[in-house]
Specification:
- The chain is α/β, with parallel strands linked by helices and 295 residues long.
- It has one domain.
- The protein contains seven helices and 14 strands.
- α1 crosses α3.
- The longest helix has 28 residues.
Length: 295
């Protein structure tokens, strides 16, 4: 049998999915949400969204959020074939291609899939540069009108694949895994090239900030006000969000009231899915509060 035979890829994908599940289930997962209704496991989550996170942390959502009606963009490179098959066994649909290197066919397929599934993109993949956001995710969110959700992930002292372009993170067994996620962000429609670059820079800055917050949280071992323990489950299978406590917004996330008045935040009413935060508001990203630490 040839080493690139489809049957071999499927077998290796199945083994890979089993290995990922066995390894990742040992971790201690917690998340801090600015709006918990962005998480598809909660019944209050409504409608499709575009989720973005850095490539080095792809194992985090791959394990936790399968079977959530989500399509993931994966490289066409032959080395990614086993990853694509593993993603399929873990409950993801996938599109093969790139959003920034001859990926017109991938973009067209993402636009088709985004009409009936949520999308997941690693915007610095498949070959980098590391933690630099390609414009494809902004373009797709703008064209489809999908709320964009930036997700920062972190592990406690992970092993790093130093020869990999993204310094791929492999968590230590039984260590801490943390996530800090943005509110849903509305990208204006019909952006020109200058507009795409403007929002690309803004969202890249936000994603790097959320990732740094998650990495500090995982390494520090402290608590964050409003943190939630998260588990592996499918769409709508988690317990419904409860009425928020003082200091939290009505979507069960961190309070956003400290944002400046010019930010024009649209807060949800009584556990209804949140409307989008307009990232075009002046200096919005600079005013986003850091998650409050609970000592």
């Amino acid at each position: 049998m040839k080493l690139d035979h489809p049957l071999l890829h499927k077998m290796l994908g199945l083994l890979g999915a089993a290995a990922v599940s066995g390894w990742m289930r040992t971790l201690d997962y917690k998340a801090a949400y600015y709006d918990a209704t962005i998480d598809p496991v909660y019944p209050q989550c409504r409608g499709q969204k575009l989720y973005i996170f850095w490539h080095e942390y792809i194992l985090f959502p791959l394990y936790l959020r399968g079977h959530c009606n989500m399509t993931m963009l994966l490289s066409r490179h032959r080395d990614a074939e086993v990853l694509a098959q593993a993603a399929r066994y873990l409950g993801f649909r996938f599109v093969r291609g790139s959003t920034n290197r001859g990926g017109l066919s991938a973009l067209r397929e993402l636009l088709r899939n985004g009409q009936h599934t949520s999308l997941a993109i690693t915007p610095d993949g498949p070959r980098g540069p590391r933690r630099r956001l390609a414009p494809g995710a902004i373009y797709v969110a703008s064209r489809l009108g999908l709320p964009l959700v930036a997700m920062g992930f972190g592990y406690d002292r992970p092993w790093r694949v130093r020869r990999a372009w993204d310094r791929f993170a492999i968590p230590r067994p039984f260590s801490r895994a943390r996530a800090v996620t943005s509110p849903p962000l509305c990208i204006p429609s019909d952006l020109d090239r200058q507009g795409l670059e403007h929002f690309r820079r803004q969202v890249e800055s936000l994603l790097n900030r959320l990732t740094a917050e998650a990495e500090r949280w995982a390494a520090g071992g402290y608590s964050i006000v409003g943190q939630r323990r998260v588990y592996r489950c499918g769409a709508g299978q988690a317990r419904a969000l409860r009425t928020p406590a003082a200091g939290h917004d009505s979507a069960g996330g961190l309070s956003l009231r400290s944002l400046g008045a010019g930010s024009r935040l649209c807060a949800p009413d009584n556990l209804q899915p949140a409307s989008c935060v307009p990232v075009c508001a002046a200096d919005w990203l600079d005013h986003l509060p850091s998650p409050p630490v609970q000592r």
